[in-house]
Amino acid sequence: MDIVVCVKTNPDLQMVRIKNREAVTEAVPYKIGDLEKNALQAAVDLRAAAGGKVTALCLAESNRKAAEDIKVALAMGADEAVVIDDPALAAPDQAAIAAVLAAAVKKIGACDLLLFGEGSSDNYTGQVGARVAELLGLPQIGYARKVEAADGAVRCERSMDDMIETLEAPLPAAVTVVSEINEPTIPGLMQIMKAKSKPLQVWALADLGLGAPAPVREIVSNLAEEQDRKNILFEGTVAEQADAFVNALIKEGVLGR
Amino acid sequence: MPMKIDAKLGLDVFKLDKEPHIVIDTDVCKTVCTDEACVYVCPADLYERDDQGRMTVNWEGCLECGTCLMCCDHKALTWKYPSGPFGVQYRMS
Amino acid sequence: MEQVECIIVGGGLAGLSAAYGLASAGVEVMVLERGDYSGAKNVTGGRLYVKPIRGFYPELWEELPYERPIARELVTMMGDGAHTTIEIASDRFAGAKPQSYTVLRAKLDQWLAEKVTEKGAMVVPNMKVDELLRKDGRVIGIRAGGDEIGAQVVIVAEGVLRLLSSEAGLAAEPQAKHHALGYKEVIELPSGVIEDRWHLNPGEGAAQFFMGACTKGMMGGGFLYTNKESISLGMVVGMEDMRRRRDGTESWQLLDEFKELPQIKPLVAGGVVAEYSAHSVPEGGISQVPKLAGDGYLVAGDTAGLSLNALVTVRGMDFAIASGYFAAEAVKRAKKAGDFTAAGLASYEASLRNSFVLKDLETARAIPGFMENPRLFTHYPVAVSRLLESIYTIDERPQAGLFKKAWRGLRRDFMNVATVKDAWSMRKI
């Protein structure tokens, strides 16, 4: 079974500082998103059961070192990697991302199962998996916490709060996964060294026969929320302070709702 | 008023391992040690005795300087670097 | 066992400098760095002396991601209610080819790692080495997690704590008496404010040292370096003094108290603390430099104890880069001769001895001992300020002449048995 895993790299969010309400991304490394690692692990596990090939597909967007960072996917067990890197795609919207990924999946050719993380670690729009599935005319299953493939079909389990739903779709299909699905392995040094010699291709938009996408959505501003302290000091005895404090909390709607 | 040490550590990025990278031989601290150098030298204020008098270390906030390791005369510390992707990650320094 | 020609343990400045030289010469080299990226586990006080290393990899230093070239040097001696600052400014400190820059390691080391990768070396982040593998006394490779990788030569640039090299018996375990604790805050301030407060031309920087009351008599001092849009403010304190102290002072409190001092407070006013970091600093001088090479290995940078605190000039990163450069030269030579034994790698130590690295450390041989003198950190900063304060003091009484005031101060604080002894011991530094 041939599996393509769409993998996004994003700035390591834990390393981003906020200065004057804006994110400082200078010197912040990119890494593969957490849910994408789950998807990769799921692909590697499926391959172990059913054989075939795992291809990691990555749209570089603003990451100038995507071709380097995607090697982590190869070290985790993907057989091949494709990176789409084009200056016209530095800040694409979800529609453009989906169009490019769909074209790339077509160009890759053999694809029985298309895997995604449910959402990216940075924006988490959760749109891309469904959009690509739609563009390729594939059935799609979301929020998968278990994936199995057998007899030309994929069977997934997902948690719906008070019940567990099991869904099946014929292959080829697209599945978006959640973190409960597995515990991604951290690749060892030997795996990292081996990844170096695995096939890695870098494509531009022209290689996919596409032109620069016209953005239909623009990010006007992206600021951290402002949180001002109220700076209220209560005076008096401890009992008086406690009373005043509780009253203030009630007044703010924090208590006694 | 000076910033609290916890607040300072809160500015740093710590990626937490499941295993502690510092292990204290608390018997040594209890029976041999009288100077408690670790408590005074640690720049992150991570060492303290608990209410039973056992020495503890909040290794999660470790800056990995190794000062405690060098300053403990009683060899009470098993001190390794956190593995692979874990521990403090400086963004400026 | 998988084999590569050269493994470098540690992607700091020493390791990366060696990797750059080796990869440029086509040697197969793999750098293992335990941080998220090179620089993620590193701390500098703040300054790289670039002049000594300009001759190594000259193309690199043109692109160095520095903060500010240092144009002004300040030393503040903190007395009892009075302090004295000496300021040295020279056209030759900054200018077209500055002698030193303030730097921040996350940016600096990541940049160098990228340069090394461009040259064809493999830099693996998030990879902690767990053991140096030895066979018949020879270092034959490393173990990281469950993987063992062999190498013809291992360059050990694992940093000051020498956890691996001491475990493997290549170097002694580091001791408190030969080390200091350095710790600092990076405090953000707008660049214009920095230039106003330290009287700097746009883009230029200052370095300031503080001796005296701030360490409560312990060996060490405060430091301040101006970055582009932040300052690095911290302290270096001798570990031996710190752990022998019995008055309840905890190291981290010293920095808070330092920041509250009337000489410091206005300098950091309005600043926003962005990071707090700490690191051990080798201060043992040349007597604590371990064996630099043996069968199948070299040691470089802090692991080799290559740093020099000469009170007002503090060096380490230039030594690390130089040692990496010479390590690469030695490995290239060994490869040519097909001899990675101690004899084949012996040119490393010879090169370091012929360069400023071990020559400067040799010249400074007496400094670590000299700095054990507590009067340096107690008596003198106070005495200097007291003397100058008396000269500048005017009150209702008839004033003594300038010479008499100075003579009186000198007699009181600088002409007794202890100070004469100190002056005599100074001739060695």
Topology:
The complex is a heterotrimer of chains A (257), B (93) and C (429).
Chain A: E1 3-6, E2 9-11, E3 17-19, E4 22-24, E5 30-32, H1 34-50, E6 54-59, H2 66-69, H3 71-76, E7 80-84, H4 94-108, E8 113-117, H5 128-136, E9 140-144, E10 146-150, E11 153-160, E12 163-170, E13 173-177, H6 189-195, E14 200-203, H7 238-251
Parallel strand pairs in A: 1-6, 1-8, 6-7, 7-14, 8-13, 9-13
Antiparallel strand pairs in A: 2-5, 3-4, 10-11, 11-12
Helix pairs in contact in A: 4-5
Chain B: H1 5-9, E1 13-15, E2 22-24, H2 26-31, H3 37-41, E3 47-49, E4 55-57, H4 67-71, E5 77-79, E6 87-89
Chain C: E1 2-9, H1 13-24, E2 29-32, E3 47-49, H2 58-61, E4 68-78, E5 83-89, E6 100-102, H3 105-118, E7 122-124, E8 131-135, E9 138-144, E10 147-156, H4 163-167, E11 179-188, H5 191-197, E12 205-212, E13 220-226, E14 230-238, H6 239-243, H7 251-260, H8 265-268, E15 272-282, E16 293-294, E17 297-299, E18 308-309, E19 314-315, H9 317-337, H10 347-354, H11 356-363, H12 367-370, H13 379-391, H14 402-414, H15 417-426
Parallel strand pairs in C: 1-2, 1-10, 2-7, 4-12, 10-17
Antiparallel strand pairs in C: 3-6, 4-5, 4-6, 8-9, 9-10, 11-14, 11-15, 12-13, 13-14, 16-17, 18-19
Helix pairs in contact in C: 1-3, 1-9, 9-10, 13-14
How would you describe what is shown here?
The complex is a heterotrimer of chains A (257), B (93) and C (429). Chain A has seven helices and 14 strands. With 257 residues, chain A is an alpha/beta fold. Chain A has two domains: 3-208, Rossmann fold, CATH 3.40.50; 227-257. In chain A, the strands form four sheets. A seven-stranded parallel β-sheet of chain A has the order 9-13-8-1-6-7-14, sandwiched between helices. Chain A has a three-stranded antiparallel β-sheet with strand order 10-11-12. Chain A has a two-stranded antiparallel sheet with strand order 2-5. In chain A, a hairpin with a 2-residue loop joins strand 10 (146-150) and strand 11. Chain B contains four helices and six strands; from the N terminus they run αββααββαββ. In chain B, the strands form three sheets. Chain B has a two-stranded antiparallel sheet with strand order 1-6. Chain B has a two-stranded antiparallel ribbon with strand order 2-5. In chain B, strand 3 (47-49) and strand 4 (55-57) form a beta hairpin. The longest helix of chain B has 6 residues, at 26-31. Chain B is globular and about 40 Å long. Chain C is of the alpha+beta class. The model of chain C has no long low-confidence stretch (mean pLDDT 95). The chains are: A alpha/beta (257), B alpha+beta (93), C alpha+beta (429). Chains B and C meet through helix 1, helix 3, helix 4 and strand 6 of B and helix 3, strand 11, helix 6, helix 7 and strand 15 of C.
